[in-house]
Specification:
With about 270 residues, this protein is α+β, with helices and mostly antiparallel strands. It contains 9 helices and 5 strands; from the N terminus they run ααβααβαβββαααα. Helix 1 packs antiparallel against helix 4 and helix 6 packs antiparallel against helix 7.
Length: about 270
């Protein structure tokens, strides 16, 4: 795995557990800031919000130890960095599947981020039915005297995919990874339904956007006639003196005339 080449560098800088957690937390905060800025820029340019919400976390020590033991590795700092790539994780939740690839592309184009690994579980779901887009990125953490590259796992998925994954995660730990076959089968069926739902909602959103664009481009002729007729009628009814000052109209009356210059009632009613 390409992520292994960063392990020795991190070990040189992380001389203790506290230092390592500090580095991962710093990398996570930098990623969160990047994502916030990209989302705000997208809203500014396209008037559309591709991100529903963002979650982030640092893996708890007991979870790290448990995962190492489950995979048959000795609990050491080196093994932790070598075999566990999701110590720092950030999850981006989107409305539609097309937003997932937009966000992934925007992150990949960040000049100071290095994409270490990509796994597309949307195009190629897991056997369980799990769907999500995973990225391992090396985030440069700028310290006072050096720069340290820290691996952060980024998961990007839709609201529906996140709902399914949360349920699957609870079931996985409830049965310690060995759920009954009938439950696993139902989960896979639900995953297919979630994929169909995402496709349907994407098609519906595209239809809504297309209809809104069509209405925006279509001239509202009826409204135009109404405005024009109203203006013409108002112009005929209201006979303004060519020079208000020379007509010796009192100031307070002039104010009333100006205030009501856009109403349909004849000005003579105010004089």
């Amino acid at each position: 795995m390409d992520a292994l080449k960063y392990v020795s560098q991190i070990l040189d800088d992380a001389d203790s557990w506290e230092t390592m957690m500090f580095l991962y937390d710093a990398a996570l905060r930098q990623m969160s800031t990047k994502i916030d800025i990209l989302n705000e820029e997208f809203i500014h340019i396209h008037n559309y919000n591709p991100i529903e919400h963002v979650k982030s976390r640092i893996k708890e020590p007991k979870s790290i130890v448990k995962k190492l033991k489950r995979h048959g590795h000795e609990v050491t700092l080196e093994n932790m960095l070598k075999y566990i790539t999701d110590i720092a994780g950030i999850r981006i939740i989107c409305s539609f599947t097309q937003d997932i690839y937009r966000i992934a592309d925007m992150l990949a184009k960040q000049s100071d981020l290095r994409v270490v690994e990509l796994t597309d579980y949307i195009t190629h779901p897991k056997v369980s039915g799990y769907r999500s887009y995973h990225m391992l990125v090396a985030v440069p953490v700028h310290l006072s005297d050096r720069v340290v590259d820290i691996i952060v796992e980024v998961q990007i998925r839709t609201i529906a995919q996140d709902f399914w994954a949360s349920l699957e995660h609870k079931i996985y730990y409830k049965f310690e990874g060995s759920a009954p076959e009938y439950i696993s089968k139902d989960l896979r069926a639900c995953a297919e339904f979630v994929a169909e739902l995402d496709d349907k909602m994407l098609s519906l959103n595209e239809a809504i956007q297309s209809e809104a664009l069509r209405k925006a481009e279509k001239p509202d002729s009826k409204r135009g006639v109404t405005v024009k007729n109203s203006y013409s009628s108002l112009h005929r009814q209201q006979k303004f003196p060519s020079n208000m000052r020379s007509a010796r109209i009192p100031l307070d009356t002039r104010a009333i005339i100006m205030k009501n210059s856009m109403c349909n009632e004849p000005i003579t009613n105010f004089l």
